[in-house]
Amino acid sequence: MAEEVKLFGVWASPFSRRVEIALKIKGVKYEYIEEDLTNKSPLLLKYNPVHKKIPVLVHNGNPIAESVVIIEYIDETWKHNPILPQHPYDRALARFWAKFIDEKCLPALWNSMWSKGKEREAAIGEACEHLKTLENELGDKKFFGGEEIGLVDIAANFIGFWLVSLQEPIGLELLTEEKFPKLCKWIHAYVNHTAIKESLPPKDKLIEALSARFGAASK
Ligand SMILES: N[C@@H](CCC(=O)N[C@@H](CS)C(=O)NCC(=O)O)C(=O)O
Predict the structure, then answer these.
(1) Would you list the domain boundaries of the chain?
(2) Tens of pLDDT along 95-127?
(3) Is the distance from the beta carbon of residue 66 to the nearest atom of ligand 1 less than 6 Å?
């Protein structure tokens, strides 16, 4: 049966880009549908009635929401070029770190970028602590997944591209070579990986769009 794979996303979203990276790693062809989050389509609301968020992957008519859940689904459906490790313990560790990124790192990084005053100061302190934890977890590996990109690398795409693209233009000095040499080395390998390179948004357009939307809101 011919596969039907559709992705509802937003070009500037690190979450929909995560799914695109996973599909590219697997070499799965897909139809991409850009959503307007200010005017969500009836299809998005139908496919993700609980969260009403992108990304949503629709595979042969079956919708799947939440980026990490989608990546695991992709990995189980197309088994070549594995994204999660094979051993149950290693799989558990990969899920643990992906969860740490989503629940701890991303909120602190987001608030470091866009909140104000004392809240911003506190967020920067917290974000530094979390980045240190990730730096230690990465150690001397090329990727969090080892020699190849894995779940944790894909989950960390906000750090690998969004944070490093935006921090300087918005006057934030967070992820520096001096403080995080291993993460900086990882970022270099990450953005030069073929599947990643093909899945990242244009940097200038991203800076412009996010600064206009969230920078203005935080003033
Ligand atoms: N935990 C979700 C987060 C997805 C998410 O936050 N999507 C945002 C865009 S970046 C969204 O659709 N927001 C619409 C809304 O909140 O109304 C995932 O990993 O997929």
Answers:
(1) 5-77, 88-218
(2) 999 999 999 999 999 999 999 999 999 999 999
(3) yes
